[in-house]
Write a structure and sequence with these properties.
The complex is a heterodimer of chains A (about 1400) and B (about 90). Among the domains of chain A are: about 20-70 and about 80-160, YVTN repeat-like/Quinoprotein amine dehydrogenase (Methylamine Dehydrogenase, Chain H, 7 Propeller); about 1160-1265, no CATH class; about 1305-1385, DNA polymerase, domain 1 (Orthogonal Bundle), CATH 1.10.150. Helices cover about 10% and strands about 45% of the residues of chain A. Chain A is built from 17 helices and 89 strands. In chain A, a hairpin with a 3-residue loop joins strand 55 and strand 56. Chain A is globular. Chain B has a domain at about 25-80. Chain B has helices spanning about 10-15, 30-45, 45-55, 60-75, 80-94. The radius of gyration of chain B is 18 Å and the shape is elongated. Classes of the chains: A mainly beta (about 1400), B mainly alpha (about 90). Chains A and B meet through helix 2 of A and helix 2, helix 3 and helix 4 of B. Chain B: This is Splicing factor subunit.
Amino acid sequence: MTSITSAASMKLLDVRLKHAGSIIASTIGEFTSGCTSSSNSSGGTQEIACLRAGGTIDLYRIVISQPFTEKVGDDEEEDEEVTTSLQLVSRIETRSTLRTLHALRVSGSKRDVLVVGSDSGCFSILDFEPTTSTSSGSSPGSTAAKLTPLSSMILHSSPFGKVGIRRDTPGQYLGIDPRGRACMIASIEKRKLVYVIHRDSTGKISCASPLEAHRPRTFVYDVVGVDNGYDNPIFACLEVQYEEYEDMVLAEKKRKKEEEEDEEIMKSAGKSEVKEDVPVGQYGDGYTKQLAYYELDLGLNHVSRRWAITTHRTACCLAALPGGADGPGGVLVGGENYIEYLHEGMVPPPPVPGADGDGSSAKIIPKRMICAIPRRELHPPNKGILITSLSVLKQKKGKFFALAQSELGDIYKVTLTLPKENKTCVSGMTICLLDTLPVGNTMNISKLALLFVASEFGDNGLYQFDAIDIEEEAIKCTSNDTITAFLKSEMEEEDEFYSKCEAVAKFAPTFRPTILRNLHKVFTMESLAPVTSVLVGELAGNEVSPQIYTLCGRGPSSTLRVLRHGLAVTELAVSELPGVPGAVFNVRDDTIVGGGKNGKFYDRYIVVSFADATLVLSVGETVEEMGKESGFLLTEPTLACSALGVGGSGDGERNGGIVQVYPGGVRHIQRGSVSQWHVPGIKKIECASANESQILIALVGGELIYFELDPMSGNLMEAGTRDVGTDVCSLDVGVVPRGKSRSLFAAVGCRDSTVRLLSLAPGGLLEQKSSTALGTTKPHSVVLSNAEEGELTLTVGLDDGSALRAGVDPITGAISTSPSRRFLGARPVAVSRVTLQGSQSTLLLSSRPWIGRACNGHHSMAPMSYAPLDHGCSFSNEAVRDGIVATSGNTLRILSVGGDSGGNNASALGSTDDESFNSNRIDLRYTPRQMCLLSARVAETTRKIVLAIVESDANDFGEEDKKAMGFDGTGKSKAGSKKKESKDGDDAMDMDMEDSGDEEEEKKDGGDDEEEDDEDDDTRLTPIRGPVPAEQGRWGSCIRLVDPANACLTLDCVELNRNEAALCCASVRFHSRGGESLLAVGTVTGMTMHPLGHKESHIVLYRVVNGERLQLLHRTKVDDGPILSLVHFQGRLLVGVGHIVRLYEMGKRQLLKKCELRGFPTMVKTLQAAGDRAFVGDMMQSVQFIRYDATSNKLLLVARDQSPRPVTCQELLDINTVAVGDKFGNVSILRLPRGADVGAIDVTGTRALWDYSREDATPKLETLCTYHVGEVVTSMTRASLVAGGAESLIYVTVTGRVGALVPFTSREDVEFYSSLEGFLRAEAPRPTGRDPQAYRSYYAPIKHVVDGDLCDAYAQLPYDVKQKIAEQLERSVGDVLKKLEDTRNALL
Amino acid sequence: MSTPGGAPIHKDQLKAKYIGTGDADMSKYEWVTNMHRDTLASHIGHYDQMSYYAVAQNQSMGRVKLEFIEKMLQPCGRPPMGSKEEGKEKLLNN
């Protein structure tokens, strides 16, 4: 990182490599329907709006059907496999901390708008509206998969309070009146604001100033808008009020007094009974949780607290039920073990018929409509299961149901029984188990029988319902059962009974989580969250550029993911060819009437040209070699070939046949007959290009001859000639735009290093329109493509391995003056047109294959994760829609780009930057914590790099314990055992929940499942959290050895038992052991978090045997605290133990303590070493630099940081500089001032001990850079992402973002970016009303870092603003965009 | 202190309007309680920090959030009482 450290003041650019995957909240609605001509024309298109961590709002459209379906051929869709996907429609960068969002449909409006709660202190309403709806669906390229450019409009953004996330700044909760008349925005404490929303005559939405509904000393848990028909809007809040401080003190005094009196009485009675305090948060702690209705009186314009009722003490989430004419109204309250129904004026539940008989009628009549949830079999009875999210779907005809998800991930279906005579009162509630999914933040149920779960951690999923009327056979619990159980119990109070977990455990039915039965996954939205560690390196051994290794996920969804820059490629077929081909072409199939399904043409032939022959392969069920019957001339190489005519009609009238250009002439094959045109004289054709109606050939010497298909006769006519005066290297006639008869321009690459654009219009045939000079290099291939409607792009592959791309004016044919040039590889670049996802793209082949595409208005170039290719063109048949046929050496390969053919294509290609990485995943057992590389000796001389990963899960059992308990994490228990278990389960239930009929039903189910297992196994698999231990301090942990060179296969996995948790690892080479790389693991046994404590901690030393197995060397018990960090230090091991740093030497039986430095402020979290210095990150107090003095065998404090930073990760930049990430999402770079250590360090080591503790005596670190990333940075590494490129600081965050801090290399760049950022701070839209600069300075003022995200917003600005900024920067708009693109390209 | 109009603002009024406002007679317990409530509220509002804790504790975010809000009720337990504590508190406040 020389460029960073050599500059006196460091300047960095923050570049986002991958968006955060976590979704904070999501909502479903119809945000754009009616404005777009999307494939799903019936009714509105449902969209899901997601708040992503890091300040992004994404809008996804639910697309059902074949992903690339054209509108024609709807009738043929029936026999096609339906795929469902989420397609990114719009992305808004808010540059603020987002908290919640909700869809709002203002009454009378046809679509929803989005209300967002953030940290900006503003109430903001966003509207998504299409900008250009004119072009949709008129070109062959534009399909459903293409992004319709959407702009978001900020409808309303009015400030109401302070910026930031304070306990009294509203924005944490949003409650929306279901009729769209009002909206409540609430803070955690006290403040609630109600906005009344109006629509004026033009349909514009406006809000008046807010009404206050504050309640002092009140914490709010959830807010929801109650469906109240068209009565006054009502908002339901779940809240607890705490007492005032003075009252609290008085109450405490009184309590103390009473206690003392009690004690005295007890003493006098001779008993010693200690009354235990109820922990806060449980029933009896002195606080009551209330559900309160706040009514907005529309007439009086005033909000009042209308009604309140005490509810379950642990309640934490709400959902409103349909009301008015559609249902009973009211809310469902989810808490621990129970879901309760509450509504103002609700009638108490009807008497339970079974419970009357057992003489308990004397007891109080139960008032609460409450129902227990079925429990997991292995869940400890003393622990409750919390319902964390609720979601309601309103169906047709007044029907509705609710889904609830528990903290373990189980989804329950909640149905209410409404008596026939009165639909507005609830007489019963049933909760049945639906399935187990990853734990989600929110659930969105679509009307299309889909369920979107935004997972807390790991991939987000879209699921399809297979069955929803499952009440008959599912494991269920009803409100009658619950109330009966209460009446049977001895307890007097309802609240007391419902707060006892043991009581529920007795009567609630139990189940064992299995694979999905009623749902199956249809779409996965990738998310890396949480990433705990990152490592960059070329470890696979055979690839060009380094991979990024990330440790992701939590618990059962833990993975090691290998990210590679570029597009994922699936190899569909590889076949040997008789020689090394010189070119490959595809020929469209015109024989199918109607042009195949959905108006798409498939390929008929693949034509491979060799030095002296041509091979024709016919494409059908299989690819077969064709003989002479194809009509092709097989004894000559082919220069170009194409199917002629408009095609698609198939009736032969407009079918123009096939043209083949070979060095001696042009051959036109038309329904069996062949007509030829021979080159006059002895000249040969050097290169040629053909499309559906035009053929351009170049003879040696530079003579061009142009042919056109006569649409009437179907023959080829020579239309014109021209001599360009120099040899021609390559030609392209472009594609015929849809609805036109010819392409208007041809590009000609000449040997004099120019590319010329010739007109093909009949007026000025072969007239030169423009040209561009290429400098010293020659063009290798040229391609004209129209990626977007009406836009023409010229791409030139150059001999020096770079590619040039320039826009071409579609009318004048002028080549734009600012072409962008990019180096692609070491070989001349061959360019060809391919179709990907229905859009025109270019395939650029150098020493690495690349794909260039236009998306979202700008061009992106991505490498393919594949071996080098020589020639390629697009390929399509029934099985492979958008494939590529390419040659590499003497093999022919058929590839598909963008992942497998599953539903993930859209996500792989749909968005702008998420596709720039493709990932491989390797499942892990527990939450991964750290990893390190080890160099293991395999044989005498060879070494092998292996990756060691330590995994540990708090609050979980180890693998063996789980097995002993009978838990199977895959959920794929065999049908036999499942049946047995279900029987056991039935026996265990004390109620006759399921009669024998049900049991049979279940058996049948089991059989079905097994069949389905074989069919679509992976769509039904779901991560299942292991059994929860009853007490704190249980851990499951293992140490894994992975071989990165062999697809990251696990070599060895050592399970730690006895509650031991491996938290950190390091590779260490003890000098005393001859430099062998050993694995040191720091473990803690029985660690608890609240309060922080542990039993003992160890350093465990492993040796890697043969590069495949871990061998335990010894364990060293360590006192004084948990071990969180280890590092190799000068042939020894430096360990952070609690607040001590200690140096160990290797011994025979255990490690030997050499020296230590005590007195770090709280706990040593991170450690790094360089030379004789070590860098210690403290959990609370930032970084300290220490030095080892070998002569006196002492560790000495060199310098410390001025500001307290709760360090989460650190990375060394050089011996004086360190980058630190903290818990609040900041990255800072700290440096020891030059010469500061000289005077302060006591070289002799005789300085008195007490001097070190003196604050003023220790040099302070200087802060070079500060930047608020917005998400907790969990790991950083210094690496370059391309082989031989400049190094940058790669960081990952807990919410799954991957970013890079790139050092600027030149003064010019710094100036350009700083001023661009300055302009954008003023000009960029602020959807939530947050100032971008203030956001990046959240905890400390931003310093020396340029926000690359903000600079990228330039591309989305309106043109006049772009122009204005560009003028002030003294550049053109194209130059600015090119500069932005170049910076990114230099990184990747 | 007074409003822009000149009307005096009483301390209690200020305290009621702006939660967490301190004064000279504030006890250490009250101050610390306020600090903790502010901190916890900030943790709840920042999604990334919540997920950081949820991963560490291996609990669902819903549970962590509930626990944090519950903790805000009495972040530092009950107010210290008894002669000894009272004396100590006075000492600290002086």
